[in-house]
Amino acid sequence: MGERPTYLDRILAHHRELAKYDTRPFQSLLDAAHAQPSARRFRAALAASDQLAVIAEVKRRSPSKGDLNIGLDPAVLARDYQRGGATCISVLTDEKHFGGSTTDLQAARQACDLPVLRKDFNVSERDVLDARLMGADCVLLIAAALDDVELAAFHSLAVEVGLDALVEVHDEAELERALAVDSTLIGVNQRDLVTFQVDQHRALRMAALMPATVVSVAESGVRSVADARALRAAGYDAVLVGESLVTAGDPAAAVRELMSVPTGK
Fold first, then answer.
1. DSSP 190-228
2. What is the CATH number for 135?
3. What is the pTM of this model?
4. 216 catalytic per annotation
5. Residue 219 annotated in active site
6. Which residue in 16, 37, 111, 218 is a FRET match for 260, CA 20 to 30 A apart?
7. Candidates 62, 119, 124, 216; catalytic one
8. Which residue is catalytic, options 59, 62, 183, 216?
9. Catalytic (active site) residue 122
10. What is the full per-residue pLDDT of the chain (265 aa) written as tens digits?
11. Rounded to 5°, angle at Cα 175 from 226 and 163
């Protein structure tokens, strides 16, 4: 991905190193995943919303911004998000770069009734199964992090064990790859992979290319109602919002404000 490593390169190198030494028996994990209680329906919740759906994120820190709310209580935050009207919740489980954990996801999910996304850099089939085993309802698959074989295999496995899969793309070529694995839940990350700067024009450009069968999500850099309104007008069904919510004095009110965006697309 160019001459100098990007944030994504460094994070993925760490996760692939972890995956290399993960020797847990795959069949045992698969059997355990199949034995889990039914997941909450993440995609269906977004599709059923009669207004702009909000995926509110539990995020302690980021590689580019450092600490955001390092001491947050995921259970309290999840309840605040639900009280504010959030449609779903996203929880960072990457520990090294984002300060997250499996415990954060489990605490958030137990504290609310909303479907929960495991937000992480999933690079192996065991990562997908871990999402199901830790209690997540949806797993993130980043197209830029996976080759075609991995993307297809991980998406198929997620569906098999009852997870929804949010396939994250950054450009037209990655959107084609997402559609090739029959993804019906696609997120467009507005954050540039090299600089980590937000480029809303990317999301606005990509919105017009989404088929009607896809529930579309704009990710990263949604800082205000004006941002959300522009993305809704472009055609997005949902926004995934982290930084502006975890740093808000009143997270419930901040979610409520985003939910006030008009319903028309």
1. -B-TTT--B-HHHHHHHHTT--TTSEEEEES---SHHHH
2. 3.20.20.70
3. 0.93
4. no
5. yes
6. 111
7. 119
8. 59
9. no
10. 345 567 788 888 889 898 899 999 999 999 999 999 999 999 999 999 888 999 999 999 987 788 888 889 999 999 999 999 999 999 999 988 898 999 999 999 999 999 999 999 999 999 999 999 999 999 999 999 999 999 999 999 999 999 999 999 999 999 999 999 999 999 999 877 666 777 788 888 999 999 999 999 999 878 889 999 999 999 999 999 988 898 899 999 999 999 887 665 5
11. 90
Give a yes or no: residue 54 inside a domain.
yes
**2 assigned to some structural domain:** no
Q: Is residue 1, in this structure, part of any structural domain at all?
A: no
Amino acid making up residue 234:
A
Q: Is 3 among the catalytic positions?
A: no
- Which among 168, 174, 216, 243 is annotated as catalytic? 168
What distance in Å separates the CA atoms of residue 78 and residue 242, rounded to the nearest whole number?
12
- Residue 228 structural domain: 7-258
Asked if 17 is an active-site residue, the reply is no
Say which of 49, 174, 220, 243 is annotated catalytic.
220
The residue ranges of DSSP E strands in 72-214, in sequence order, are 88-92, 116-119, 138-142, 164-169, 185-189
CA gap 113, 233 in Å, rounded: 29
Number of domains observed in the structure of the chain = 1
